[in-house]
Amino acid sequence: MSDAAGMLITLSGPSGSGKGTIVRQLLERRRDTVLSVSATTRPPRPDETEGVHYYFRTREEFERMIRAGAFLEYAEYNGSYYGTPREPVDEWLSKGMNVLLEIEVQGAEKVMDSGAALVSVFITTPSMAELERRLRTRATEPEEKIRGRLEIARWELSRAFRYDYIVVNDEVALAVNRIDAVIKAESMRYPYMKKFILEVMRDAQTDRY
Hints:
Number of helices: 8
Strand content: 15-25%
Low-confidence stretches: none
Number of strands: 9
Strand order of the largest sheet: 2-7-1-8-9
Helix content: 40-55%
Shape: globular
Distance between the termini: 21 Å
Order of helices and strands: EHEEEHEEHEHEHHEHH
């Protein structure tokens, strides 16, 4: 089973839907899965570390990376750029690791449109009222930013139809279980098991059989 191909997984949802918490717990559970660190032009929050949560870049640096073709996808969200560096993703997949992209809907749609083999998951709260409550509880942004995020969330929800799976984050532990079940099921599809099947076929052609 060590020859199974790595899986590319996009995980998106409105700001405040709990993506970050879900990702942390999922990574603790699945040692075969890594998180792709995105680049962004937004300022770091007090609890964020360079190279761990994001690669923080100036707008000029980010646009140079765009011109160099360094991103698997990128998008502008609420006045800031976000993007997924291409090289580390390709390297992890080649080693048979699952790569999780915690990215905005615009970016996820670009990956979908690229024709890349992937599993897409959309995270949502049970209601818009709950989403607004979570955003205000964070107390990290001014009122205009919160209103902007709520408006964007309405648009993001309208794009959920493009995703393979919809997971409601009504309780973090349950949401993590649901995504874990998705990964387990998807990992048994033929594209991810092809190397394993070919190895079994090679064994069947030996003199032992």
